[in-house]
Amino acid sequence: MAKVHNWQLGREMLYPYDAGHPDWQFAFVFNINRCIACQTCTMACKSTWTFSRGQEAMWWNNVETKPYGGYPHNWDVKLLAMLDKENPEGQTWDPAGPKTPEKPYGVFEGKTIFEAAEKKYGAQQQRVLGYLPGDQEWRGPNIHEETAAGKLATEGDWGRSTQLPEHEVWFFYLQRICNHCTYPGCLAACPRHAIYKRPEDGVVLIDQSRCRGYRKCVEACPYKKAMYRPTTRVSEKCIACFPRLEGQDELLSPDGAPLETRCMSSCVGKIRLQGLVKKTPAGDWAKLPENPLHYLIRERQVALPLYPQFGTEPNGYYIPPRWVPRKYLVQMFGPGVDSAIEQYSCPDRELLAVLQLFRAGRQVIFSYKIEPGPKVAELEVTMPGGKKKTQQIFNDTIIGFNKLGKEAVRVTVEEPTFERSKEHLNSI
Predict the structure, then answer these.
(1) pTM of the predicted model, to two decimals?
(2) I need a labelling partner for 270 at 20 to 30 A (CA). Which of 45, 113, 317, 380 fits?
């Protein structure tokens, strides 16, 4: 195996292939705090890409309830248990390690799915540690939906069970699509070399003319987002709506500017922000602080990768939910959880402005500019540690620009209100 640098782990790791990096990388941020599990994103994807025979069990986009359930069922718990078995008590982060821009979460000292596979099977036997879900695990995408965990409240104890910073009874919604990883497990495992990353945007695709349906990708993907289609006997997966990324929709993008994917552009709760981040030839993120994804992920670190310890360097990031026990969140998103929640609980002026860009328009936003506005409010906020903090809110205007440098969206921090005239038919 080759050695590649994984910035999310803060170290080099083993991977079957030498590193190769695209010019731009498709990436996204989901704000879990806003999701209402309406499944509009799920059905938008389903009606566009997986409505045909043999795709009945395919949900490229799904919203599942944690800590139970998942699709396929318990996909993450099973893999976490397998990794712990291969490296007992060793799947930990170095708490004393220095945190730098190159190592924002410190150093992960455990084994990735590639390193654990080499230990268990040998480098020549199997490249990725994983498992193949059975038919029962694919049967339904919303098993255990809205099933809560934690200490159930007793009589007279209801209020205490749902108090921030951590609820005693809790659950949350996890929105998932393919993470289009920098080091994909599906790509590493495919014996046919049918899976590849596009050099222009890093989207991971399957060449179905080469695929023979061995399902090695299904077994190896730690997020279980590669799926087998029995009618065609090949695997399929999320393609990041690449015709929209290419600006091929003449109605919504007459000038050819990249568009957000279907699941992103249909989001009712405005929890999603998708974009493209510039990569250097060495694979680092180019320093573009005006890019909203770069600002949220690399500069402020308020959005965190999903299970970074798997080692695939996923390009899907999440703003963690405020009310969930921290130990659970650290296992899922790494050691940056406390800092992310602290910032989100009382966002400063620029962070609050950037958060307004979520689902503000259909075109991909490559950069933003903030026009200062007047102060409109002061709020007392209780921080996760219990301290009180005063938040000043300014009605700034944030402008998002597309790839061509044209204005794509303009929003204000304070939502405008409009009063209808008395002549309007629906006026009271």
Answers:
(1) 0.95
(2) 380
